[in-house]
Specification:
The protein is α+β, with helices and mostly antiparallel strands. The chain has twelve helices and 20 strands. Among the domains are: 122 residues, no CATH class; 40 residues, no CATH class; 137 residues, Trna Endonuclease, Chain: A, domain 1 (3-Layer(aba) Sandwich). It starts with a strand and ends with a helix.
Length: 431
């Protein structure tokens, strides 16, 4: 298996080029397969990549891992810096793992300190290792068994005799008993899903320690069949008190089986593929971290759809959904929106790299959610070129927009100076 590491917006080609984080050479089979995959994404309103010409593909803002049928493993990392090289790979992978862990509420089990410090494994191997560690812990605590009703023919009596079938036996089979009985078996939806995920890990992993542990677990779970209907079995996954020890392995199982992705590739690859839109991942990460920092009585409300852009024929049209609203007990509101994009405070001629469409969007939010009076925040990731809040953008004397950085390394928001101290002084202390 050939592993290719790139980052968002990288360009892929079949021609030989110098491999960097922003360009790479792939096989013609992988190139054609990615083109077919992208066409399927576009039908669902998402853009995986752009076909620049017949020789180049340009990736969009999806991050994660894609495994093609020809065996090419493409790892796509977030672009949060302009640097390149091995240090940039390690930093980007560390950031992606951190954001996935927080955004998807993944219960990470402790591993080697070396793994924690260097993140030397590719993202896919890290996911598989976390799954096998969680499954190993579950097996040590014990699998849940259920009684299964079995109907069969035997030469001895066991359980109940099925009288209707027995009386229908021909004379030459009178010595064969039709019986019904219960067996205490591990064949239940949760175990079938875990076995399916484990089989996929056994076939995919290239790390010796993960390979060894996964095959040991496969031997222990040999009597558990794989799932024949993954989606149906996930719907039957129970979360009651008796299944509490299954909870830590559940999100990892969903990741390995492709059920945790916003846009799944189930049935399209021979291995494990994990793709996440970086825009949504950043939004979810900021939501979790900012929600932890807000003091009482302030609350963070997500995706408020109570307002629309206009009314047509008596019906609301074009819903306005800011990413977040900050509210308090008196119902005062601050509108927040996140954007995953690298902007620069030194690029004044290029308007810092800001998009007019984003400002039009915030202008509409302000008029509908704030009635044209109040404060709004446009949140971008903090970088070396964008380390402090930009001066306010005034839509009017009563409505201002602030462009602020969110520090992903320290999980802190940089708030505008001079805001209401009773709110934001507390926020800075909790951060």
């Amino acid at each position: 298996m050939k592993c290719i590491i790139v980052r968002e917006y990288a360009r892929l080609t079949t021609d030989p080029v110098e491999p960097t984080l922003d360009q790479a050479t792939i096989t013609s089979e992988a190139f054609n397969w990615l083109c077919d995959l992208a066409s399927g994404f576009s039908k669902r309103g998402a853009s995986l990549l752009h076909l620049e010409n017949r020789r180049w593909l340009k990736l969009d803002n999806f991050v994660g891992v894609v495994q093609t049928p020809c065996g090419t493993l493409l790892e796509i990392l977030p672009k949060h810096t302009d640097q390149s090289g091995r240090e940039a790979v390690v930093a980007s992978r560390k950031l992606l793992i951190k954001m996935l862990t927080v955004a998807l509420h993944l219960p990470v089990r402790s591993t080697d300190r070396t793994d924690i410090e260097t993140f030397q494994y590719p993202l896919l191997e890290w996911v598989m290792k976390q799954f096998t560690l969680s499954l190993d812990h579950l097996v040590k605590r014990g699998l849940r068994f259920d009684y299964q009703r079995v109907e069969e023919e035997q030469r001895f009596l066991r359980g109940q005799l099925d009288m209707i079938k027995q009386l229908s036996q021909p004379p030459g089979r009178a010595h064969i008993f039709n019986i019904r009985h219960d067996l205490f078996l591990p064949n239940r939806p949760e175990n079938r899903l875990l076995m399916s995920a484990l089989m996929r890990v056994c076939k995919t992993t290239k790390q010796p320690d993960i390979w060894k542990l996964s095959h040991e677990l496969a031997g222990l779970l040999a009597e558990v069949p794989i799932s024949k209907n993954i989606q149906s079995d996930f719907r039957q996954w129970r979360n009651d008190r008796l299944m509490a020890h299954y909870k830590p392995v559940h999100p990892w199982c969903k990741l390995v089986l492709g059920q945790q992705m916003p846009l799944a590739l189930r049935g399209k690859t021979n291995g494990i593929s994990l793709l996440f839109p970086m825009e949504k991942l950043f939004e979810r990460y900021v939501e979790v971290k900012l929600g932890e920092q807000l003091p009482v009585p302030y609350t963070l409300k997500r995706q408020d759809a109570s307002k629309s852009l206009c009314i047509h024929d008596g019906r609301s049209m074009f819903q306005l959904r800011p990413d977040f609203l900050i509210k308090n007990s008196k119902n005062s509101v601050i509108v927040l929106d996140t954007k995953w994009k690298l902007i620069s405070t030194i690029d004044r001629k290029g308007k810092y790299g800001l998009s007019p469409a984003d400002f039009y969007q915030l202008f509409a939010y302000g008029h509908k959610h704030l009635q044209g009076k109040g404060q709004m925040l446009l949140i971008y990731p903090r970088t070396a070129n964008f380390s402090d809040v930009l001066p306010a953008f005034d839509f009017s004397t009563d409505m201002k927009l602030w462009v602020v950085p969110f520090d992903l390394e320290n999980d802190k928001m940089h708030w505008p100076i001079g805001w209401d101290k009773t709110i934001f002084a507390q926020l800075r202390h909790t951060g």
